[in-house]
Amino acid sequence: MQAEQIIILVTPIFFALIGLEYWVGKRRGRNTYRLNDALSSIGLGMLSQVVGATTKLFTLGIYVWVYEHAAWLPLSSDSVWVWVSGLLLYDFLYYWHHRFGHTTALFWAAHAVHHQSEDYNLSTALRQTSSGWIAGWIFYLPMALIGFPPLVFAVVALIDLLYQYWVHTQQIGRLGWFDRVFCSPSNHRVHHAVNEPYLDKNYGGILILWDRLFGSFQDELEAEPCVYGTREALRSWNPWVANTHVYRGLWRKMRSLPSWSDKLRVWWEPAHWQPGEAAPAHDAFDPYKVQRYDPRVPAARQLAAALLFLLLLVGTALFLWWSHQLGLPAKVLAILGLVLGLAGVARLCSAPGPASDAALTSAARHP
Ligand SMILES: [Zn+2]
Ligand SMILES: [Zn+2]
C-alpha cells in the first residue's frame, strides 16, 4: 500500500477529531476554529500531499540510490530492533531538520507554511509545505548510509508525521511528566508561538528529549499565553502566496545586496538576517498587539467556499488513491488544478473590496 493511500484511510479520523475538537471548544466557550483559516490550512495539506506524490520519485529515489550504492550495513526489515532504532534515528534527524527549518532561511522558506496559521488547532497540523522536497531529504541520508531499508524509512517517516497530529490543540492542557519526555500539546503550542521566550524552541517530533539534550526546550508559561503565527504575517488564504511568501522575500533581499558573498549568505543565515547587523531588534515586537487576518464575508460566499473546497477534497482523495498509476503530466495537471481551485476558495474567503482594518481581529481576544 502507498503512503498516500494510508493518508486517505486515516483522513476520516483526522476530520472526526477536528469535529470533536470544535464541539469541545464550543462547549467550553473556547472555540479555536475559523472557517477561512481551517479551509486554508487543510487545503495546504492537500496540496502538500499531491506535490509529495509527484516528487517522491525524486526524494525517495535519492534515498534508494544511496541505500543501494553506499549502505554501510544493509539492515533487515524483519528485525523489530531495526524498526525501533529506525524510528528513534528518524526522530533525531527530524529534530535537526526541523531546527534548521527555523534557523536557516532556505529551510524556513519551506517550513514557514506550517506556522502561518494565526489559529492553533488540529487543522494546523495538516498545514504542510509543498516545497520541502527541494532540500529536506538531505537530513535523512544518514539512515540510507547506515543501511535502513527504504521501506523502514518510509514507514517510520509516516509514523513520525502522524504522531504530531494530536499535539496541535489548545483543548488539552499540561500533561506532567509527559510534557518533558514527548512532544505534547503544551510544548508544541510553545513551538508555534511568536512570543519572545518561545521563539525557536521545542523542535522535537515524537521525543521532546532532543530539545532538552540540545538546549532548545521551553516550558509553556502561565504568565505568557501563546500567540500563534509568524512574525511576518502572511495575510492571505491563497496557497501559492503561502508557499512562495518567504522565498520571494529572500529573493528580493538577495537582489538588493551588492556583494556575492552576502547574496549567498541570505539563504544560509536566519530569515531575518541583514548584513552588518549583529542581532535583529526583536524587542519592539508585542505579540498581544498582533491583529489577526480575518476578512468578513457574507454567509453565501462562505457556503460557496465550503462547497468548492469539498469538491476539491474529493478530487484530491481520488487523485491520491490512484496517483501511483498516473504519469508525470497528469500529476502536474492535478497540482495546477488544485492550486487554481484553492485560489478560488481563497478568493471567496477574502473581502470583495480592498483590504481594510475591519478585516483584522485582535489575537489578544482569543485564548
Ligand atoms: Zn516548526
Ligand atoms: Zn506544528
How would you portray this structure in words?
The chain is built from 14 helices and 2 strands. It has 367 residues and is mainly α. The chain has one domain (3-365). The chain has a two-stranded antiparallel ribbon with strand order 1-2.
What are the main properties of this structure?
globular; 14 helices; two-stranded antiparallel sheet; disordered C terminus; mainly alpha; binds zinc ion; 2 strands; about 375 residues
Provide the spatial order of strands within the biggest beta sheet. 1-2
Q: Give the radius of gyration.
A: 21 Å
Task: Give the amount of beta strand, in percent.
Answer: under 5%
Detail the poorly predicted runs. Answer: 362-367
Percent of residues in helical segments?
55-70%
Q: Mean of the pLDDT scores? A: 92
Give the cofactors and ligands. zinc ion
Biggest sheet features: 2 strands, antiparallel
- E-strand count: 2
Identify the overall geometry. Answer: globular
Q: Given the structure, what is the number of helices?
A: 14
Instruction: Tell me the structural class.
Output: mainly alpha
Straight-line N-to-C gap:
41 Å
SSE sequence, one letter per element: HHHHHHHHHHHHEHHE
Count of spatially separate domains? 1
Question: Briefly, what is this?
Answer:
This protein has one domain (3-365). It is built from 14 helices and two strands; from the N terminus they run H-H-H-H-H-H-H-H-H-H-H-H-E-H-H-E. It has helices at 3-28, 35-70, 80-103, 105-115, 122-126, 141-146, 150-163, 178-181, 185-192, 209-213, 239-256, 260-268, 299-322, 328-348; strands spanning 291-293, 360-362.
